[in-house]
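QA checklist item 7 of 12: single-chain prediction sanity check.
[x] sequence parsed
[x] length recorded as 115
[x] structure emitted
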Amino acid sequence: MFLRKLRVQKLAAQEQPTEQAQSPDRAMQRVPVQGDPTQLQDCPIHWIDTFAMRNFTNDAVFDDTLPVEDGVMEAGHRVPLERLRVAMEDWLRRKGFVKTGEELRVTEISRTEEK
């Protein structure tokens, strides 16, 4: 039984600014990264679905997960959130969806946040 909704988001890697020479008479100058590197992005439902098929984990605790929509999945209360996050992040990294330096966030959606 699915009793709680979870938000599944990817946190983009914080890129380090690069240095670039401006002219021979000026020192190196820091160039800022374009955009907001700390923005959370909802994981597409097809990413969540690849994890929820369970064939790769052989771990019955994840049987109680169900993709709902982009960035949202349902899970039973016996599914430990940190263990789910670690397993999903590992799987999505192996599939190439989560890059080095990026991380996954899995948080419970409160009833007041539900649509």
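[x] summary fact logged: The beta strands are 4-11, 18-20, 29-31, 40-42, 65-69, 72-75, 103-108.
[ ] second reviewer sign-off
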